[in-house]
TrEMBL record:
InterPro entries: MFS_2, MFS_trans_sf, Na/Gal_symport, Na/Gal_symport_CS. It is a multi-pass membrane protein. It is found in: Cell membrane. It holds the Pfam family MFS_2. Keywords: Cell membrane, Membrane, Symport, Transmembrane, Transmembrane helix, Transport. NCBIfam families: gph (TIGR00792). It comes from the Bacteria. This is Glycoside-pentoside-hexuronide (GPH):cation symporter.
Amino acid sequence: MSSLAKKEVYNSEVQSEKIRFKEKVGYASGDLACNLIYQTVSTYLLFFYTDVFGISAAAAGTMFLIVRAIDALSDPFIGTLVDKTNSRFGKFRPYLLFGAVPFALLAILCFTTPNFTGSGKLVYAYITYTALSVLYTCINVPYGALTSAITRDSKEVVDLTSVRMVFANLGGLIVAFCVPLLAGTIGESTSTATGWQATMTIMGIAGALLLIFCFRNTTERIQVKEVHGKIKFADIFEQFRVNRPLIVLCTFFIIIFGINSISNSVGIYYVTYNVGRPDLVKWYGLLGSLPALIILPFLPVLNKKLGKKNLMRVSLSLTIVGTLALLVIPPTAIPLILTARLLAAAGSLIAGGFMWALIPETIEYGDYKTGKRLGGLIYAMIGFFFKFGMALGGIVPGLVLQQFGYVADQVQTPHALTGILITTAVIPAVLLAVALIVINFYELDENRYAEVVKALEMREKTGR
């Protein structure tokens, strides 16, 4: 046991306390809030900049790359700040309370069109979008870390995560269907710019209220009262040295979010050109998230029956089968294609949802090994790696399609169609196979994690 561990004093509530369903809904509402606001931004802001605000596609694309790089690099610094926070509201919840209204206001400003010149528009967009992205990290990192402060019971964590993922995907469905509908309806009676601003105002207000609801209906039961040993940025390197489960999970996040980014980006090409049915794009996209509302509520049951590693193996294998099926299904067999999409999405959503439930375990293990409970910093590290995975996944389709001679808005050559199919099925399947190997190195099985929790609870009782 480290010397730092001996100097920590914890709030010693019963850690196996069952979390009420109201609190689970309260916690999940935070992810619904983030999706209503930030997924609207992620999905429609580029279109708004180019087609409504009047920024060139090249300038907007460069700005997105720069802002996302700033956002990813800011994660560890914000995580360190969160771990240093101690207030009467707790360590993580204050960010939800005090960030809710500014988050909504900045989102509305991003969808506002002041009467500036060309360069003035670009400067305005850089300032508002960068501020929004950094503030989103200031909310999302402590929100994610809040799970580890609510409970350390692994079953309760899985329950919390399953409800959270249902709400997150519900937010995605609302954004996919309601945002363009609202923007179009309001824009018809006013103007396109006003339609988008009003729509973002509605999403922003709803998101802010949900974040405040999340703040009011969650409790930080596991609190570090006093830490002798300064929390610093260099703790990242200490965690990578001693926290092997965290390394495995970071690697897993890169792979899974890379795969998701590839699949989401190339799906429209596959349906439009290989299948020849652009009218099915919205349904193909819908089937990518719809299974979450059906499957994720049963995540705790699946975890109990299969165990964490077997659950991940089954879900990843299911995704591989659904993905590779597209190689042999004829483009004219629409029902089979949609079935394969549904199968792959089901496996992907189970794996993607469950891996969030493993993060609190790495926080406990890091505490066990170093004597420092670094919930904010570890969630920030995870955030950096999944953003890195999304960035890599966003680059791959463009490079592959270019290599195979894809040309936009025309009938594709057989060679180009092969490139689209490889990007849709083969590359994700190979990466999923790598993920299957990686998850075997996750050493915190049920028995080992129970030992870690027991040691931590003993430390709390004795104060040593």
